[in-house]
Specification:
The chain is built from eleven helices and 14 strands. It is of the alpha+beta class. The strands form four sheets. The protein has a five-stranded antiparallel β-sheet.
Length: 297
């Protein structure tokens, strides 16, 4: 059995200090947020960092608050905090549903939104809801702060647009108009929600005063090298009165946009079929919410 390689542990008290430590790091330096992935990878010797920068002592990075125009979620906000937040539940339905099915309760008590995003997994439960909610990621590095639209964040499997000296500090989700409904569904290998997603689907639907689809967003996990937005499927819904036929056509279009792989967990053909079924069900969920009495979401 391989032994854990010795490393230097840094515990900065500010974002600037953390960024400078990352910028000055010699060898491989990793960021510790929740630690649910990094610590496992270190124990299994998948990674062997020479230094670890622990963000947990930086004050304020775990806040969830309503600000002008939307909700700001600090990068160290735990997934269990998203799950228990009345603000997230009322205004970001797809993200709230995803937070309830991400891994197990012990993992949700440790995992953070920033850590989940930073891993840049194609199977991320949080990325598709953030896409349909139109999220922007706030990043800070040696050159200062910069906003990154969520759809520009993922570059490839396990690869994000972050520079080695940059960290995620918060995520901003704009307020949704009235008559907006959003939802998230996934299926894991064991058939439940707590497993890694074979396919995950997030949907947001906005209806106009006449009941037509004014806007729709559909995003999927585990069906492409990065979280995938199904734009052709969305285009097929806009301007139309929602019906079972139009939803089924959108679900079929979304499945055709996927580029899944075959692995030990599922075949590509099964993932494509599952993407169609889950997209249809999630569209129904989001539409039902949008058709309810107008309320802030």
């Amino acid at each position: 059995m391989k032994r854990l390689r010795p490393f230097i542990l840094h515990q900065p008290s500010s974002v600037r200090e953390a960024v400078e430590l990352l910028g000055a790091g010699a060898g491989e330096t990793r960021v510790l947020a929740g630690g649910t992935d990094l610590l496992v990878d270190m124990k299994l010797v998948r990674v062997r960092p020479t230094a670890v920068v622990n963000l947990k002592r930086i004050d304020g990075l775990d806040r969830i608050e309503h600000v002008e125009g939307g909700i700001r979620i600090g990068s160290l906000a735990r997934v269990s905090a998203l799950e228990s937040s009345p603000l997230v539940r009322a205004r970001c339905g797809a993200l709230w549903q995803a937070s309830r099915v991400l891994a197990s309760r012990p993992v949700r008590n440790l995992a953070t939104i920033g850590g989940n995003l930073g891993r840049a997994s194609p199977a991320s439960d949080l990325a598709p809801p953030l896409i349909v909610h139109g999220a922007t990621i706030q990043v800070e590095g040696l050159e200062g702060k910069r906003p990154v639209p969520i759809e520009q964040f993922h570059v490839g499997p396990g690869v994000s647009c972050l520079a080695p000296h940059e960290i995620i500090t918060s995520v901003f989700l704009p307020d949704s108009p009235a008559r907006t409904g959003s939802a998230y569904r996934k299926l894991g290998k064991r058939g439940g929600g707590s497993d890694i997603a074979l396919v995950g689907v997030a949907v947001s639907v906005l209806l106009d005063d006449g009941g037509r689809v004014a806007d729709a967003r559909i995003a999927l996990a585990s069906v492409a090298p990065t979280p995938l937005r199904a734009r052709a499927a969305e285009d097929g819904l806009r301007g139309r009165m929602p019906s079972e036929e139009s939803l089924a056509a959108a679900a079929e279009a979304a499945a055709e946009e996927t580029r899944p792989i075959s692995d030990v967990r599922a075949s590509s053909s099964y993932r494509k079929s599952l993407a169609r079924v889950l997209t249809l069900r999630t569209l129904r969920d989001a539409l039902s919410l949008a058709q309810q009495e107008p309320s802030p979401r």
